[in-house]
Amino acid sequence: MTEITTGSPVIGGYAHAQALDILAASRPEAIKACAEDVLTDLGGVTVLANRTGLAMLPFVDTVRNTAFHLGEVLVAEAHIRVPDRGVEGYGAVTGRDLEHAMAIAVIDAAIAAGHRTDLVLEFLNAEQRRQEESDRERLRKVEATRVQMETF
Amino acid sequence: MAYVATRGGERAIEQAERLFRDDLGTITRERIEAVRNGLPYLIDRVMGEASLYEPDLAALALAQAGGDLYEAVLLLRAYRTTQPRLTVAEPVAQTDLFTVRRISAAFKDIPGGQILGPTLDYSHRLLQVGVLKGESYTPDPVIPAAEPAPAVQPSLATWQKAQGLIKDYPAETVAPDDIPDLTREPLLFPASRAHKLQSLARADTGGTLALGYSTMRGYGSVHPTVNELRLAEAPVRMRHPCGTIFSAGRVRVSQTEVVSKAMELELGFSATFGWNEVKVIAAATLDLASNQPNPHPASNEEFVLYHTEPVESSGFCIHFKLPHYVTFQSSLDALRRVKTDREEATAGKIVAEAEDQSEEEEVAL
After folding, report:
1. Which residue out of A5, A31, A69 would a mutagenesis test of the B interface target, given it has the greatest number of B Cβ atoms within 10 Å?
2. Are B89 and A58 within 8 A, CB to CB?
3. Which of B45, B53, B101, B355 lies at a CB distance of 3.0 to 4.6 Å from B231, suitable for a disulfide?
4. Which superkingdom, per the lineage (chain B) (predicted)?
């Protein structure tokens, strides 16, 4: 995977893209609970958008390097503003879970405002560990299927 | 084309729909989850042909359609029209793919090695009939390797290009928003490669297989070998309002390169949503075959792309069962008129011949 870690850290050692990646791949119930905690004293929130919609996904052909559209992916997105703190938050996640998207947006706004950094960082660390472990376990099973055709 | 409304049939139509749904019973959240979790390859197929990735909706479409694939694809395509286009995501490159299966039938030793991944390719196909007697079937667990497989692998074509085995093509610099899009533009011929690959990505699996198989059997000049087959998960990378590009999640994709054994190595390509190996192998074969000069009609670009569109082809097919009374009555009227005209002409000819004969007899007397 191309991990987008470029850019300055916005919280702990996480670049903005990396934090958003982790939040989108988080367990829905866990991120919603974290967002609830963050929201408690974040201040008034204005919802600019909270909807489902389509993201067209282009793919690059390996033969002639032609980019073409593979199809559309349904995504849920949320865009909020926190006027008291002068920040905005945005989240998007594949699927129809508007609350998950909103939770990402709330935490994104909290990161921008430097609000509840300890809580958010703890959540990011825990989710990153879980996601990396999940991928690692999957890839260990995949590696078990490596074949040497001479001995097949 | 003319149709007539079925007057007085409203009640029958409503009851017919009720009867269809009555046979399927109550659709519950549990049923949808059972379909989604238990039949992921069917879900993949429906999402690929619908060109809309959302497993829950695909499971719902299948449940509502009672498993009728064309109805399910139509339901998803119809749902898609209710949703706004939020963005065009960043293009997926090979280095983005979380790869779980990558094999080559052309080269034994490929960079990165051959990973079988989840497959039944070398398995006995046996029904576990004990399940029908109440014995649950639990497969043996995978014994994981000590270390994980690499998450990303380069495409085999990249290595072949570096070796000078196949022609390289310069990468096109097209902004995502400017990539040709069949959902916004008509399919015209000769089709752009972007349109062709998008059309194959959303093509009907069965139709693609039928035409691809005919090409493989000899109705065309291409006999393919799988250069690389890959199952993976691709990130959907979107743009945050501040410009940050991030992944909103991953979707399952399959892709294939096929290689011809002609005078020089030539490759065909296909990719689609979901894990659907038959479709991408057949579609990559059709891509390769349609690039040949004077392709066989079975692999002619226009023939292939028009006839593998699942909604249009199934819709055209089943529309023939809808009332065609006016057009058919018109044909019947024409047939009757021709018959009457012929009979009158024949009768007139007989009368004329009889009169002629009578005149001849009179002359003879």
Report:
1. A69
2. yes
3. B101
4. Bacteria
Q: What are phi and psi of B348, to 5 degrees?
A: -60, -40
Instruction: Give the predicted TM-score (pTM) of the model.
Output: 0.92
pLDDT tens for each residue of B314-341:
999 999 998 888 888 888 888 899 999 9
| Sequence ranges of the domains in chain A | 9-136
Residues in chain B: 365
Give the closest of A62, A73, A142 to B100, CB-based. A142
Give the three-state DSSP class for A150.
Answer: helix
A69 in contact with B at a CB cutoff of 8 Å? yes
For B191-229, how does the pLDDT look when each residue is reduced to its tens digit (9 = 90+)? 999 999 999 999 999 999 999 999 999 998 888 999 999
Alpha-carbon distance of B69 to B76, in angstroms, equals 11
- Please give the ipTM for the structure prediction: 0.94
Three-state SS for A57?
strand
